Task: structure prediction
Amino acid sequence: MPKPKPPSHKQLLSVIQTQTAIAKLGLDLNAVMTLVAEQVQSITQAKGAVVELAEDGDMVYRAVSGGASHFLGLRLKLQNSLSGLCIAQNTTLYCKDSEVDLRVDREACRRVGLRSMAVVPLIHCGEAIGVLKIYSENVNAFKAEDLQILTLMSELIAAAMYHATKFGAQELYKLATQDHLTGLANRALFLDCLRQGVEKAKTENKTLGILMIDMDGLKPINDEFGHRMGDAALKEMAKRILTNTHHEDLVARLGGDEFAVILSSNGQQSVAKAAMNKIAEACGLPFAFENVRLTIGASIGLAVYPENAQDLEHLLEYADLKMYENKRQKKQTILQI
Result:
């Protein structure tokens, strides 16, 4: 690859703006990784960008740019992949064409829809623990200057990792998979666990239930009392969901006013509906913060594998559909009153 041209003024400005935005995010490592993925995709005009972390022999998609959102939580084997080789060699690698490059997992590349890609290691405490990757559906889509920008952006993530924790990779895993406000699992961990749950249910011929939960009343609280009150209401909602689920259930905040639960107990409809009703009742109880009464509640949708859907995407769609039906029914009831 020829010697890279210096980054343009526009590109450097984008890097500086990203650095400023990262400073505002503080210790929210997941938000930092997502921001960098989105920015590096935009600057390099890639089809997508991904932050992968090495975990238990897998490379796990922990942050993605908007166009690759359906791959969040995806697991690929560390061995026989360009990302794994990038970590092993601790150096930037470029694949011009995944169909002829022996270093890549060709089937995984086809699944993601990439033909060329560049990966740069994420260094924490002198060790490569993940990669920042850009990819394209076109052959040899990137130039040397794109790799230079990729390296600059990876250093922003590495700096955020360094400042976010002093406890090594285990603490980084927690920060990368935890919602910063509530302490619940984040979207990436939820999708990761749901993928594994569906695969396990298929293998063992079992059922699996999920709940999609939309918090009612957050926008009016934010509009009238400000985001500090809204954050308190979100924390209370998280607490109520956790209190009314089993220890083995995975409770996650997907972002904004969206929550979700993977039910660890028998996923039969009757058992899952009982769990859903218990959460709905608890979330609708009165709540006061700093002597201000706040109206909150939850609209919930239930989906059970394999009765309602046979794969992850359709399971999520079904639960979302049921959740919105629940929300509409409640609005109609209020109007009738």
User: Anything to note?
Assistant: Residues 312-336 form the longest helix (25 residues). The radius of gyration is 22 Å. The chain has a mean pLDDT of 89.
